[in-house]
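Students often ask why inverse folding is considered easier than folding. One informal answer: many sequences map to the same fold, so there is more than one right answer. In these notes we will look at a single instance of the problem. The structure comes first.
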């Protein structure tokens, strides 16, 4: 696929390669008409969130929707599709948002959000999380809308048949020395402020425990660093 830059990317979950026309409505319609001031005849790009980016021409603008005729589409590879980032509920919502945004920009497309013993906040606002991920996907011109699962506790990780990678500053094994097979299923687990308790580590039963840095990192910094290294 040719390199895309300086475009505005929209999201349409109903996009279909077998259709000739798609429509934008609601917030996407408002952004295209009121913010970007698109008009009939303009080019428009949209993704289905499942790997495809469509290029089309606006054929009509109605009161509540835009119709776009599809010219072509491209499929982007999801190189990190077998990597899942397991992120705890962080105390600061802005840092939590920042971690999700940057991971999405760096190509992470699978998240598990969980509550830990040392998590201060316990609830997740799913609608807000979806908006954060959707905005980050469009802003970074990605074509995969990340998938999110919620775990109520780390016990949910115990019996999963995947490679579970946990980060611990005292480990002698370093992330920088490891290479990960992108065809295997890996879960990367990050602790909250204060880290995992010993009981939680026993519950998780990690496959690997790795050192990420010589100094202590904030949770969101550790998350983004790993995403950057893997990408």
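Output (designed amino acids):
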């Amino acid at each position: 696929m040719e390199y895309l830059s300086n475009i505005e990317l929209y999201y349409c979950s109903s996009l279909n390669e077998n259709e000739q026309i798609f429509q934008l409505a609601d917030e996407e319609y408002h952004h295209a008409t009121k913010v970007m001031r698109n008009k009939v005849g303009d080019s428009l790009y949209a993704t289905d969130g499942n790997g495809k980016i469509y290029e089309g021409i606006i054929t009509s603008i109605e009161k509540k929707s835009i119709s776009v005729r599809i010219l072509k589409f491209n499929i982007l590879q999801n190189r990190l599709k077998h990597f899942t980032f397991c992120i705890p509920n962080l105390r600061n919502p802005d840092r939590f948002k920042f971690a999700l945004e940057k991971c999405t920009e760096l190509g992470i497309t699978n998240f598990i959000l969980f509550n830990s013993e040392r998590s201060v906040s316990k609830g997740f606002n799913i609608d807000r999380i979806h908006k954060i991920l959707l905005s980050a996907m469009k802003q970074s011109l990605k074509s995969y809308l990340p998938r999110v699962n919620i775990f109520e506790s780390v016990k949910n990780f115990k019996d999963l048949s995947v490679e579970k990678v946990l980060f611990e500053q005292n480990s002698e094994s370093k992330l920088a020395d490891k290479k990960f097979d992108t065809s295997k299923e890996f879960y990367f687990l990050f602790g909250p402020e204060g880290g995992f308790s010993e009981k939680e580590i026993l519950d998780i039963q990690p496959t690997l425990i790795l050192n990420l840095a010589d100094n202590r990192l904030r949770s969101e910094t550790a998350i983004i660093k790993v995403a950057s290294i893997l990408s």
